[in-house]
Amino acid sequence: MGTGQIVAVLQIGGEFTTDADGLMSYSGGEAHAMLVKSDWTFSAFKHEISSTLNNLKVDQFLFKYFLPKNNRTLISISNDKDLHRMVEFHAESETTYIYVIKKVDNSAKSVVADSATPTNAIAVVPTTPDGSKRQKVCTEWKDVITGVGQVFESPKDFRDALHKYAIAHKFHYRFIKNDSTRVTAECTGEDCPWRIHASKSPANIDFMIKKMSETHTCESETVKSHRLASQRWVASVIKEKLRDSPHYRPRDIANDLQQEYGLCLNYSQAWRGRSIAQRELYSAHDEACIQLPLFCERIKETNPGSVATVVTMEDSKFCFFVAFHASLYGFEHGCRPLLFLDAVSAKPNKQWKLLTATSVDGEGDVFPVAFTVVDKESRENWHWFLEQLKYSLSASHDVTFISNGENGLWDEVPLVFPDSHHGYCMDFLIEAFKKQLDDAWTEEVRDAMVELLKRAIFSCTVDEFNQYMEQIKSESDKLAEWLLEIKPERWSDALFMGSRYGQYSCNISNTVVDWIPTRYELPVVQLVDTIRCKLMEMMYTRRESCNEWPDGLTPVANQKLQEEVSKAHSLNVMPTESDGDGNLFKVCDDSVNVVNIGTCDCTCRKWNVSGLPCMHAIAVFECTGRYAYDFCVEYFTTKSYRSTYSMSINPIPDVTLTDNSPSPATLPFPIQTRRRVGRPKEKPADPRITIKRAVRCSRCKGYGHNKATCKIPISGEALPALPPAELSDVHNKVESCS
Length: 738
Prior knowledge:
Elements (H helix, E strand, L loop, with lengths): L4 E8 L2 E4 L5 E4 L2 E8 L4 H11 L8 E5 L9 E2 L3 H10 L5 E2 L1 E6 L20 E4 L4 H10 L9 E2 L2 H15 L3 E6 L3 E6 L7 E6 L6 E6 L18 H14 L5 H12 L5 H36 L4 E7 L3 E7 L1 H9 L4 E8 L7 E8 L5 E9 L4 H14 L7 E4 L5 H8 L4 E4 L1 H11 L6 H16 L3 H14 L1 H9 L22 H8 L8 H22 L9 H14 L3 E4 L8 E5 L3 E5 L4 E2 L3 H5 L4 H10 L13 H7 L79 H14 L1
Parallel strand pairs: 1-7, 8-9, 17-20, 20-21
Antiparallel strand pairs: 1-4, 2-3, 5-6, 5-8, 10-14, 11-12, 12-13, 13-14, 15-16, 16-19, 17-18, 18-19, 22-23, 23-24, 24-25
Helix pairs in contact: 3-4, 5-7, 6-7, 9-10, 11-12, 12-13, 13-14, 17-19
């Protein structure tokens, strides 16, 4: 309300429940309204509640509320400072929820939750110190791992589920094997046989539990639960609350995790978890707001014609688009009009995704055209990326897109590029097809079915396509129906209207992952500049390698053409009688195909699909004295390959040191640095002010020596045999000491 007071609705006698996502909802009870003023003390606050609720004995109740946009965690009101914070947090809200929870014994059951309505409420419900949310979460987490055969999307998802499972069942575990392909863990309890093993599924897609012990003998309420609360896990739990309440204290974090999850954390653990959450929430967004706009200008200054755009949004999110001029020029003047859309995880920067648009050169190698850094792969981010891509490209020719079609791409591509064609990525289609195969089939049958699918993809005519689809249908009607449901015009050459020129997939993911360091995280600016350096190196290397190539076709394209030439020697060629221009020919092998060299067409359609003359066309060329190289599409020529890499990506000097960059002290959060290994080295003292302490003997109290080297005997001891000169010195020292 912004007037020093907020409106609260008091509800009594309702019931609270928690859904699977941890969101709490309230239903039932009576409602009463009251005002809460910012200058009230906690005693005045309790007195007003008591009078509003018919002289309720407030000493028997606890007071809690939710932060704005957070219906997961209840915040306590126990003193004046807590009350003032609540009024401050809800100053812009029309109404605020405040719950009055009855104090009961630990054995009592508790149900505490929030209301989904846009009003504030105070509810009177019995509760326990731990709260029903903990009971609800633990009950759900007990079944997060069900047993052998359960599938997870990645090893990380499996490890997260195992962590929740251990918290719910209160046991500790250690990893025996833990990598990207397999995870094995066992219970650390004495003589406990519990063990679990998970690895990649046979299709090499999902992560599956292969072995799991049925018995667990060490489950105990006395387990030291603080060992289960890792720093990363604490950060993931408190991140949303920290976003709403930036001053979330470590002590409050420890108390909340104790009440909600039953985990006992010390101050240091809570502080480290909060530091990680702060870095993930604010560091990337601060960089986007401060450094990325400057970096965009540096890209445009050093590489004229490049496109670099950054857009910051709410909730610490941003989109950063980059397309270097050399890449745009190479795509438009040398590459085939074909773009592969893919999302790449920027490991180890797991909070970022790279949305990429990649073409292929005349050799079939990947040629990155543009990319953007986003927080996740979503329909909205893809739409923004496609709009930036359209702005960057010229409208001289239509483009064929290839993708997996997920996250709304089937709808977004034609929306932004209405005249384009959009097809399936073959690798994605094959992996999706493997998931549909019956587990009861043998490996040999599964491989045969995959081979039939590939032949259906490569079929150039409708008759060929129908032939292979009938063979698939004879094995499984369900598989044939599934293939027809995903529209063959998106993946079969016989029906696809776009031009793929024999390129069905693009392995850009592995290329980019190899470029990014995996041992440490990079800021977004350094991440993009690392990719720029790799692109610059790639373009220089390929430009130098093609200088010695002969004119004509690239080596890979020439090899494919020679394979067709070897097949053409045994074919019979006959000109058609009805052709007056001399362009139509009949070529006979097992069947009769008609070749039209005027329109670069053959009834087998391989010429149209691949862009290189088929064996029927080459047989005609040999009979008519023409050269096959003259009938290949320009994208496979050495000239086009050299045009692809004719431009260079220029360096960006001092990419992380800009003149207008703010100092670290002006940033909203201090820069988090990793502590070095080992004991910190002490700073050496200034030799100009060094004061050396004099050595004093504890035996004779003299200076310049210690007790071990003292030559003065104590009382009752005889003097050692010394030379006369040294003996006189000893006597003199004795006399001086006396």
